[in-house]
Q: What sequence folds into this?
């Protein structure tokens, strides 16, 4: 087991290297001169001399590979550089935004699980019943309804018409009343997919022989489903949830923007809009690292859920 | 989506729990004894009348809030009027579409937050006015500028503001962007409150240049040796209390402000990027006002206006939206072809339909927001007949019979380049489609291309375009006319316009060096006439900014260069 984890960690090195290379090359793939775009004042003009000086100051006049290695060595020293715009350390801003995103992601995940797991199980046990049909139709709706639309509808109902919850904002560092609507928006759309998956894996499991055997043994239906079937049915669902969580952690641009949630998605989009290259590169690298690590966690979690999976190579 | 019922139930339960803790406005205008929402002499009189039992007692008359209404309240109100006692202006929450803490790296946007001040600011008529300078003068040869500074001004950290700290700031600004202080030779401290700038040649627009909203005076202790601003410490009426990126900037009044006691006790500027969410937050009262350019979109203004608790405010701002015609290549190297395009486009309809009336159809290069400098003889040009006449005069005719004009075997086909960032902020796409269809009516085929910001700039710089749309917000006539129309002007070169007229070059140089305002005005009037005739570019519309406020907000007046008069604003509830 430990061997497996170490192996996976070693494998991360080339992956991270590749990710860093890709996020760095963005600077050269995106057309236009960052120096000029940044120095273009609110009136629209940029002084050519200032552009030249900025290029030298930021090292943009050096060859690409030198820029890359300077950047990489800075990263290895925990320094992601400074934002062109706010002139603050990139890492500080990413961490503060990530904090907001993390909060939203956790609450969304909880909402998503509270909805999808029970409904998925019930739909499977009572296949083709009214409950099953209704929940599958609403799951379909949930998948197809765009987030921004669902978000605006929720705002219209709960904030504007009923006045129960605030329209948007982070409140006092992401308090409960501010997190509810964005979390429901995100949570329900991921719940839609998870519900369907939960239902189909559960269906598959309960038709297997060992479940029949358990029933024949005289176990109560609660124990058969809750203990014997659920554990096996959950394995693919966990992968899905893990992936979902990783997506949630990357920050949803649409939801964060509608609800003015100062998360990492918003930070990234604003940085792209302002051509704040160090910030864009930092965000992409950070998000990629998070994604990779969450996936690793999911893989490790498997071994606990299913003892058959051991990840050991044959001796 | 699971089940809507479950969702609804969760939301209902949680919301019910929170209902009690919803924030409510608390401040009241104590001292406003007669209840007319202003505090003035009439309120002192009113308190005396209450004491004399002529008028009824009321809560607001208890200005010092000791629970009784007596002579001390009258004195207290007099103290509020004179600025000795704090104005009970309450606090406000303003919403805007961008993060006011991120701009320019200053930690607080200079014109939107009231944290910073500069020597000169630009007033509602876009004329420079003293701010931290009391007056200024220029030597007879136009090269030496002397500014006399206000005495007794302190930064929020207590550091005194004087000629020495001003000099440090200007050295920072000059190093940050060389050339932005004009052809600078030296900055000298004459005495504690006098600073002198020496230029190598006359630079008449210098005072206006100093009114750009990033010419802020920042406490020297808040800036490191690499010119990074570590903390937002200025001299302004408000100081930063708390900043949370992409979320909010919290400010409190600077009670030692040189200009007296700011009325509003403090405010929170909330960044709400989505325009719909912003407007809905105003409707629910979560925010009290929407500020900044692009704050309210035209399509939402009607809904807000219909709400009795909300007032929509509009202001003609210094931003104009231009159509550039590339003078450097066929077909627009022919002046008549450029004139024809201007005649073919119905700007009034664009303003009335797409902008829902929030704007003015373009005339000359200078926006009417700069009223003092505008050549008023220039009119809106529209007429399909004139356009067709000009086109046939310059040799264009529909030879193939396909509805598209041809000349020397070449069809009249042009590209219209749009900037992807700009189409998110203004309705450029819709306007471009109208232009496309109107040009089609006179036989010109226009192809609309949306390019990402950098690609757009590069394409223009390299002259790989025929038409392009762009906004521009000048601080004065020089910045518009020199930068865009002088053959060496920054914008002319950067946008690859290839516009070149020796008389225009002569006049723009003359305007830059002429100190006498009336003479400059004459120069600029002639200049505007020439470029209106030659049409290297023309304004499609002059922008009107839409802001909105709830009924508790007093004193807010939107500014054409987006300054906010925070020290005058207060809340009545």
A:
């Amino acid at each position: 087991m430990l061997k497996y984890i170490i192996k996976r960690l070693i494998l991360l090195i080339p992956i991270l290297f590749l990710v860093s290379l890709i996020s760095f090359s963005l600077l050269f793939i995106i057309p236009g001169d960052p120096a000029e775009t940044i120095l273009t004042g609110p009136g629209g003009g940029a002084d050519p001399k200032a552009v030249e000086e900025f290029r030298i100051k930021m090292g943009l006049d050096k060859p690409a590979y030198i820029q890359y290695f300077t950047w990489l060595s800075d990263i290895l020293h925990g320094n992601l550089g400074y934002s062109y715009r706010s002139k603050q350390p990139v890492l500080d801003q990413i961490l503060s935004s990530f904090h907001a995103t993390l909060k939203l992601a956790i609450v969304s995940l909880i909402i998503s699980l509270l909805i999808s797991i029970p409904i998925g199980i019930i739909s499977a046990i009572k296949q083709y019943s009214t409950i099953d049909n209704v929940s599958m139709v609403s799951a379909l709706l949930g998948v197809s309804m765009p987030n921004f639309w669902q978000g605006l509808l929720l705002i219209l109902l709960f904030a504007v018409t009923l006045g129960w919850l605030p329209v948007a904002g982070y409140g006092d560092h992401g308090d409960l009343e501010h997190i509810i609507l964005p979390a429901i928006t995100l949570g329900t759309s991921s719940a839609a997919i998870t519900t369907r998956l939960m239902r189909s894996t559960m269906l598959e499991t309960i038709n297997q022989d060992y479940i029949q055997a358990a029933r024949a043994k005289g176990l109560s239906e609660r124990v058969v489903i809750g203990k014997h079937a659920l554990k096996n049915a959950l394995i693919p669902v966990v992968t899905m949830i893990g992936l979902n969580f990783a997506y949630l952690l990357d920050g949803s641009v649409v939801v964060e923007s509608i609800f003015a949630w100062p998360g990492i998605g918003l930070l990234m989009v604003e940085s792209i809009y302002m051509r704040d290259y160090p910030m864009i590169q930092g965000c992409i690298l950070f998000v990629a690292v998070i994604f990779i690590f969450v996936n690793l966690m999911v893989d490790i979690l498997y071994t606990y859920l299913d003892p058959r999976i051991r990840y050991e190579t044959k001796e | 989506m699971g089940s809507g019922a479950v969702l609804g139930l969760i939301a209902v339960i949680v919301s019910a729990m929170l209902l009690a803790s919803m924030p409510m406005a608390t401040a009241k205008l104590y001292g406003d004894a007669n209840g007319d929402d202003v505090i003035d002499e009439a309120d002192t009189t009113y308190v005396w009348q209450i004491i004399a039992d002529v008028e009824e007692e009321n809560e607001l008359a208890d200005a010092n809030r000791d629970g009784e209404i007596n002579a001390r309240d009258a004195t207290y109100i007099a103290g509020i009027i004179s600025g000795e006692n704090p104005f009970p202006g309450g606090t406000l929450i303003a919403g805007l579409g961008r993060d006011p803490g991120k701009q320019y790296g200053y930690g607080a946007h200079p014109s939107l937050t009231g944290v910073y001040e500069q020597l000169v600011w630009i007033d509602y008529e876009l004329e420079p006015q003293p701010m931290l300078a009391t007056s200024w003068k220029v030597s007879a040869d136009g090269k030496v500028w002397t500014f006399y500074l206000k005495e007794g001004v302190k930064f929020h950290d207590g550091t005194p503001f004087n000629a020495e700290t001003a000099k440090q700031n200007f050295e920072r600004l000059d190093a940050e962007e060389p050339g932005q202080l004009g052809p600078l030779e030296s900055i000298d401290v004459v005495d504690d409150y006098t600073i002198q700038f020496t230029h190598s040649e006359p630079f008449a627009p210098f005072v206006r240049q100093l009114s750009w909203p990033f010419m802020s005076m920042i406490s020297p202790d808040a800036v490191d040796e690499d010119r990074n601003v570590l903390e937002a410490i200025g001299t302004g009426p408000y100081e930063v209390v708390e900043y949370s990126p992409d979320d909010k900037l919290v400010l409190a009044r600077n009670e030692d402000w040189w200009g007296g006691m700011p009325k509003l006790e403090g405010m929170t500027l909330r960044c709400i990027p989505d325009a719909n969410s912003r407007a809905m937050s105003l409707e629910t009262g979560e925010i009290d006002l929407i500020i900044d350019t692009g704050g309210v979109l035209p399509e939402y203004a009607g809904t807000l206006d219909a709400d009795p608790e909300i007032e929509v405010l509009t202001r003609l701002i210094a931003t104009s939206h231009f159509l550039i015609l590339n003078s450097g290549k066929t077909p627009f190297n022919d002046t008549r072809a450029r004139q024809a395009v201007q005649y073919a486009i119905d700007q009034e309809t664009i303003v009335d339909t797409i902008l829902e009336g929030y704007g003015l159809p373009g005339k000359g290069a200078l926006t009417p927001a700069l009223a003092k400098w505008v050549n008023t003889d220039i009119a809106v040009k529209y007429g399909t007949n004139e356009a067709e006449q000009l086109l046939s005069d310059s040799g264009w005719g529909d030879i193939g019979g396909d509805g598209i004009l041809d000349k020397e075997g070449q069809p009249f086909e042009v590209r219209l380049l749009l900037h992807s960032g700009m189409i998110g902020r203004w309705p450029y796409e819709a306007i471009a489609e109208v232009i496309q269809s109107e040009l089609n009516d006179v036989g010109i085929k226009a192809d609309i291309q949306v390019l990402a910001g950098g690609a757009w700039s590069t394409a223009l710089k390299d002259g790989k375009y025929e038409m392009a749309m762009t906004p521009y917000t000048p601080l004065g006539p020089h910045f518009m006319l020199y930068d865009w129309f002088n053959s060496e002007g920054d914008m002319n070169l950067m946008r690859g316009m290839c516009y070149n007229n020796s008389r225009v070059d002569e006049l723009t140089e003359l305007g830059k060096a002429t100190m006498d305002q009336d003479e400059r005005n004459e120069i600029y009037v002639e200049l505007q006439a020439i470029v209106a005739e030659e049409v290297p570019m023309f304004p499609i519309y002059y922008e009107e900014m839409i802001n909105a406020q709830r009924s508790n907000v007093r004193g807010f007046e939107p500014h054409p260069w987006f300054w906010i008069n925070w020290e005058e604003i207060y809340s009545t509830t």
Summary: Residues 218 and 234 of chain B are 5 Å apart (CA to CA). Chain B touches chain A through 69 residues (CB under 8 Å). Residues 12-26 of chain B have pLDDT under 50 and may be disordered. The longest strand of chain B covers residues 310-325.
